[in-house]
Design a protein that fits this description.
- The chain has 9 helices and 2 strands.
- Among the domains are: 34 residues, no CATH class; 54 residues, Homeodomain-like (Arc Repressor Mutant, subunit A), CATH 1.10.10.
- The chain is flat, with a radius of gyration of 39 Å.
- The protein is mostly helical.
- The N and C termini lie far apart (91 Å).
- InterPro entries: DAMP1_SANT-like, Swc4/Dmap1.
- This is dAMP1 SANT/Myb-like domain-containing protein.
- It comes from Euplotes harpa.
């Protein structure tokens, strides 16, 4: 019979036997009562240390997160309650990096009230080397062709204003000069 030959070639009968064997294996792992179907499928039938699985007498595996007893938790809470709390005050301060005397406010611990502004040490202005007319004519004028003294002074001002951040300088640079970042760095 031709249909049997096709089935034999496609091995349909063998597949049917294999799939029925799989169904039998699945049926052997039955979900215990009291355990949700989703939980059982997520854990692949591996028993956990949860109360439902433990009460059914199934094996338990150790929990992933360590457990503590309630006495140690209470001891930690008592320690936290007995500790003195630092007092905070709303204070005005002046940033030493600013010259305009602008006042800002923030919360600060009362015991540190007399300390200087902590971020003032980070904010430093870069001091660029200055040059005279003679130094410009001797050293800088012949160094790069196409640069005027005015443009060089403009670049120096931009470098000081933006702390030598050449990407920002290039972004803010006057577009009539048409300079690349590399040209600005070289100058």
């Amino acid at each position: 019979n031709m249909s049997e030959d096709v089935k034999q070639i496609l091995e349909l009968k063998k597949r049917d036997k294999k799939s029925s064997d799989k169904k039998k294996n699945k049926d052997e792992k039955k979900r215990p009562e009291g355990v949700n179907r989703e939980v059982f499928s997520l854990t692949n039938g591996v028993p956990s240390s949860s109360g439902a699985m433990r009460n059914m007498g199934l094996l338990s595996i150790p929990p992933v997160i360590g457990t503590t007893d309630s006495a140690s938790i209470l001891k930690g809470k008592k320690r936290a309650l007995n500790r003195k709390v630092d007092k905070w005050v709303w204070m005005q301060f002046e940033n030493s990096a600013r010259a305009d005397g602008f006042k800002l406010s923030h919360w600060q611990k009362e015991k540190n009230a007399d300390d200087p502004y902590p971020f003032a040490k980070i904010n430093h202005k870069i001091k660029l080397v200055t040059f005279t007319d003679d130094e410009y004519n001797k050293l800088l004028k012949t160094l790069h062709r196409g640069w005027t003294k005015e443009e060089t002074l403009y670049l120096w001002d931009m470098c000081e204003r933006y702390d030598l951040n050449f990407i920002v300088i290039h972004d803010r640079y006057d577009k009539t000069y048409q300079r690349t970042v590399e040209e600005l760095k070289d100058r």
